Amino acid sequence: MSMRRKFFTAVAVSGLVFAAPALAETIAFTNARVVIGDGNGPIDGGTVIVRDGRIVAAGANVTVPADARIVDASGKWVTPGIVAGFSRVGLVEVGAVSETNDTQANGSPFSAALDIAPAINPATSAIAVSRAAGVTRAVVAPATARSIFAGQGAFIDLGADPNPITRARAFQFVELGEEGARDAGGSRTSAHALFRNALREARDFGNRAKIAGGSARGEPLSQGDDLPPDVRMTDTNAERPNDVLLSRFDAAALVPVVTGRQPLYVHVERASDIRAVLALTREFPKLRLVLVGVSEGWLVARDIAAAKVPVIASALNDLPAAFETLAATQSNIGRMKAAGVTVAIGMINDNDSHQLRYEPQYAGNLVALQKVPGATGLSWGEAFAAISSVPAEIMGLGNRIGSLKAGNVGDVVIWDGDPLELSSAPIAVYIDGVEQPLDNHQTKLRDRYRTPSEGALPKAYQR
């Protein structure tokens, strides 16, 4: 199978930025085992049609257009690209080297106002490694430093190009639980008081400044335009009480959260902390909560389902590594799914900057869990959806990303076997219909030293 590279241009659609082939092209992936990514099982002998960077059709009995370039995927699996539900990819090269680590702003006077989009480096080695593993999109979040508010995360593509941002200022991220307690002064009491106070300040600030808090369509706009003109960090006219704790920038950044225009991702693990977060909707009914981590979510699954709050959970967090995860179990995701909770797989505090390639393994473990007596796992289709269409739906992009449904972007991966098996690997990756390079720093090192010969080695290896 040829691995042709294509050049592309950036195209903005409804405030989102996608890549598009510089030359219009129709591609037909034929004779494949096709996975739509919507929770259903694989389709044998299927075909996927991509035209001008978008899915036209996928499934069995699909007619191949006469002008299509045929990619014969006999014996292969064709799936949508993997969507990492939570990560910090692109923000870190070497975690211990501060100059290459932009996850937290330890000395910044701002918190909620921080926007990580300008810090994401598409040349980070972890992006190329993740892309070669079939990951095509990722939710990227900042980490907290001196406040429970970490700032505004982004949704990116992992293409080999200089424009990774699909949606900037996609959500606000906040830490509660044990870490939030530390950030807020030493207790959960302080963290929740600070949290409620910040939301009240933002609501009051928005009312005084007459800020709607987002786009008229109810979604963030493109980078730099996520907030209306009168809230883009320039508003100094609205009067404020003297007892406020947030800066104007941070208060303005939280206005879209309290008005329901921007999702609020909340990291929380303990069952009691989950209940406390859900209770916030009584005072702030417009909050669009997304729970992250949620190790003890199975204990309060009915409450989460009743509140219709989606979850991005850690799939293998099954040990009592902290007091807030004493009830952790690998059946957590399966039990929440069975209770009616919308659940995707994420990797918070689990090699979330470098190892997004673990996601298919995690999903596969949940499939295998069905064979363990007393455990609760996921079907194959449900597990793959948890790393493809479900995280896209939680981000509000399920009608554009995460599956091979007609009209979605052409994020397509060809695998040499079952993508949820450790022995399988991608042999081709397309993002927005553009075929991507699969080489990276690791593959180059492998190729260089797999069969060493004299004369082509560094001095340290020469005799």
Average per-residue pLDDT, rounded, comes to: 89
Structural class: alpha/beta
According to CATH, the homologous superfamily of the largest domain is: Metal-dependent hydrolases
CATH topology of the largest domain: TIM Barrel
Q: State the domain count.
A: 2
Signal peptide: 1-24
Domain Amidohydrolase: 331-433
Organism: Flavisphingopyxis soli
GO biological process, one term: N-acetylglucosamine catabolic process
Write up what this structure looks like.
- The protein is of the alpha/beta class and 463 residues long.
- It has helices at residues 125-132, 177-183, 188-209, 248-258, 271-283, 301-307, 332-338, 359-368, 380-385, 389-394, 441-450; strands spanning 8-13, 16-21, 26-34, 43-51, 54-59, 69-72, 77-80, 82-87, 135-140, 149-157, 165-175, 264-268, 289-293, 311-314, 343-346, 412-415, 426-431, 434-435.
- The chain is globular.
- Helices cover 23% and strands 23% of the residues.
- The chain folds into 2 domains: 8-80 and 416-447, Urease, subunit C, domain 1 (Roll), CATH 2.30.40.10; 82-399, TIM Barrel (Alpha-Beta Barrel).
- It has 11 helices and 18 strands.
- The strands form 3 sheets. Strands 3, 4, 5, 6, 7, 16, 17 and 18 form an 8-stranded mixed β-sheet that branches. Strands 8-9-10-11-12-13-14-15 form an 8-stranded mixed β-sheet. Strands 1-2 form a two-stranded antiparallel sheet.
- The longest helix is centred in the middle third of the chain and has 22 residues, at 188-209.
- Helix 2 (177-183) crosses helix 3 (188-209) and helix 3 packs across helix 4.
- It starts with 7 loop residues before the first strand and ends in a 13-residue tail after the last helix.
- Residues 441-451 have a biased composition (Basic and acidic residues).
- Residues 441-463 are annotated as: Disordered.
- GO terms for molecular function: N-acetylglucosamine-6-phosphate deacetylase activity.
- Belongs to the metallo-dependent hydrolases superfamily. NagA family.
- Residues 331-433 form the Amidohydrolase domain.
